[in-house]
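Can't attach files on this board, so I'm pasting raw text. These are the components:
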Amino acid sequence: MNNQIHSMSDSIVQEINNLDNVSILKLDKEEIINLFKANGILLFRGFDVDVDIFKEFTNLLSIDFINYAGGAFSRRVINGDETLLSVNDFKSEIKLHGEMYYQQNIPLMLWFFCANPPLEDGETTVCDGRQFFNEISSSTKELFSKKKLKFNVRISQEDWQKKYQTDDLNQLEEMCRKNNTHLTVNEDQSILLEYISPAIIPSRCGKYQVFINSLLPTKQLNPKIINFEDDSEIPEEVVSELNEIAEKITTEISWQKGDILMIDNTRILHGRRSFADDQRDIYIRLCSPAFSF
Ligand SMILES: [Fe+2]
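---
Top answer:
Structure tokens for the assembled complex are below.
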């Protein structure tokens, strides 16, 4: 597989191209795993992939596929499979983030599949959380080491039942307990959720610090629900600093039909540029690696 691998220019993304006209299902699994562990992000391009092959390929390398209960956005289930979801809830920009970092149980690994590319714009953005950490000023690093992030959100009864895919309060309590999320149920059956998360985590190998969280899109889309754990506000200049770093170290992926992106969700942040057309159809699967990691 060696002659099929190259880096996108100036990029963290390792691209694996189909130069020998082989099936993606025939690629050397061990080699993929080693590349994934080293780089955290792989783009498979030029293979003949439809949605069934995408599922088969991801099933070879991943386990514990989850549905999106508790997720922040509405996602369309594809072909009746709750572990295969469309990401196009709306069309505006989504800033760099780790997937589902507003709860304890995050998927360790993400897969994206380009069922149909946008006519223009709508690139998926990525960056390495290790590099992000290295770029942050020492005063901001110190602030995040002292104070964790707190997500604090009120959700109506109708909305939590949809979001958590249940109308049973006991089940909701159980999900919140497993996610280390503090739940308050109000008289009108609306709920208040409170979750505290670090902005910076040690890498799984323990050698690096990684800036990965849901701070930037939350500040962008729903600023009232995020503060520090002591209820103090995250200073605007800190948010500006982080947005500047994010732009500086972002790699854009311009989708081609059939592209597959494999992402380490404990290290690589992702987001997307805005788009205007109705063509863009990108699917996602959330899971764990089927190998030691
Ligand atoms: Fe995401």
